[in-house]
Amino acid sequence: MSLPPFLANIIGWLRAGYPHGVPASDYIPLLALLKRRLSDDEVRQIATELVARGELPIDSTDIGVTITKVTDEVPVEADVERVRKNLNEAGWPVADPFRRDAPPE
């Protein structure tokens, strides 16, 4: 079974850095480093797709679903926030009544 390119790159990187296997003490730091983060280009691509749909206001669910479609991975909250910030800065409304920091209605 072939791995997605993202995972194949990670495995190649691990094999190069740890040719004799990953020591147990390095597992947690490595997992922290390998947490998926969107590139700036991916953030722009996702924001562009959301705006092109014309369904406003956009919410965190819309952002998360679009991130999953583009990256084929479950989004992390930091990625959702980066897309949200990008949209807000461009003047596109982002509404999410479930956010902890959302003002009360």
UniProtKB/TrEMBL annotation:
Matches recorded under InterPro entries: DUF3349 (IPR021784)
Q: A Pfam family this protein belongs to?
A: DUF3349
Would you say which domain of life the source belongs to?
Bacteria
Q: What is this protein called?
A: DUF3349 domain-containing protein
* Species this chain originates from: Antrihabitans stalactiti
Classification lineage: Bacteria, Bacillati, Actinomycetota, Actinomycetes, Mycobacteriales
